[in-house]
Amino acid sequence: RTTMKSLRFISAEAFVSNAEFARKSLGAVSHDLFPLLFKASYLLEQGEVIHDLVENWPLFDFNMGKLLGATLDYEEDLSHRTCSVCLESCLTGLRDYVLNQSSPYMKKLKVVDLTGIKDVEVQFCKCKKTMGRWARTQLLSKLCSDLLVYLQQAQCNPGTFEVSISVLIDLFVTERNYELVVQALLKKCSCPLKICCVAFRSDNLTLQKFFYIIKLTDPSLLRKLEIVHNVHLEMEHLEMLFNHIHFPLLMSLTLPARTFNVRRFTATDEQTLTNIGEKMGEMTHLTELSVSFSILTGRIQKLLSPLKTPLKMLDVSNCSLNHADMAFLANSFHANHLEALDLSGHDIPELYPSTFFKLFSHCSSVLRSLTLEDCNIQDTHVNMLILGLSPCRKLQEFKFIGNPLSSQALKHLFTFLCELPMLKNVEFPVPRDCYPIGITYPIDDASVCRFDHQKYERVAEELNLILLQANRDDVKASTPLFGSYDAAVQETNNELGAYLIKSFKETLEKFTSSFNKMS
């Protein structure tokens, strides 16, 4: 689809397409045209022009989400283009804005907001090189440190030290960029560019380092906290975190796998869980919670009942929930507000079909995203599933890979899915009849690719044809065998892989040592 451009935008493109002319002429450009020229430069990937626009930014704020979002002049949203050329030019332009020797009264910029940048799987920029969240964290931290070193060494205009710009960013910290980010946060008071962390993601970090850096981020401003892979946070550590650090604005919390394990609970652990629930209850803005791959059998009520604000997103995938847990969810005040729900890894048809229906009847008017992966949904359950999904008229995303469904059942289900008006994304399983007879579910990683690929392609074509014949070519249907795209994991998979190999090697060495002692 071709997006319409206004004459103003076409003129802006023409102006910035000649980089040398545009850079020389910026001094004569009206201040209110800078946002227009910025978006045109970003679309054309004119890095030098972007740099100079930011270096001479004449306005009080610079909000990437708004600047690249849909405008009257050009409706296409460019905020999902994490083009490396453009983003590096932006950030180096910001550094040079501080160093630019023009009069201090010319410098109006007070707030830079980088949080509107969206990391997506498919990039449309010509350079095909992206700058993800981790790399943006790395570059901004480095620029802040370099800026301080330069200011200390060079003879700068005294007005340079009066510049103070809050840079709002979603930080992503791992072992590899930890030291650099820590240095930038420690020197925040002295630096003209002040990192303001709005969202924080931590992967592959020791607990000691995590606790240290989270205090430096100014938790009072934090809206989103993700503690994910290879951060060995257990329940007692979480209690300690909540007891010592307050998160008054926190809206979204993601905890690592195995944070909770009720199978080895003591009386002290029960009290710890109660304390954590109460602390979460004090977070009056919390509306998104992910506790996947924890064992929470029979304890969902204890964890969630203290919450005073209804949850809009809940991920309890692979949490070994029982009937009491599902009954609590179905009857809680959260049910009427859930826009995104992940119940993967639970045998829904077998364990709690009626409570599942009740939960759906409550959240159907608002539900936008539903994930039911590895839920043992079989051909005999498809009609029940259709009945449950029918009222979900706002559903935009439905993921159900890993379920033992035949080609025929998938066609029946897709015929129904065409009727959901807002649906945009479907992730469906490889049909059961594409696998060898006798395959058991859930399918292990070693067997997941051992299916008849030609037959799968034929079935996938038939499913897409069902969508096309219903004029639903707006729906994307796919089978990501190893889970949905995760921009953060994709960007740091080499580091995570190296960590896993190191952990495996250490475990093997311990085992060998113990075995030798026994011998």
UniProtKB/TrEMBL annotation:
<dbReference type="InterPro" id="IPR050694">
    <property type="entry name" value="LRRC14/PRAME"/>
</dbReference>
<dbReference type="GO" id="GO:0005737">
    <property type="term" value="C:cytoplasm"/>
</dbReference>
<protein>
    <recommendedName>
        <fullName>Leucine-rich repeat-containing protein 14B</fullName>
    </recommendedName>
</protein>
<comment type="similarity">
    <text>Belongs to the PRAME family. LRRC14 subfamily.</text>
</comment>
<keyword id="KW-0433">Leucine-rich repeat</keyword>
<keyword id="KW-0677">Repeat</keyword>
<dbReference type="InterPro" id="IPR032675">
    <property type="entry name" value="LRR_dom_sf"/>
</dbReference>
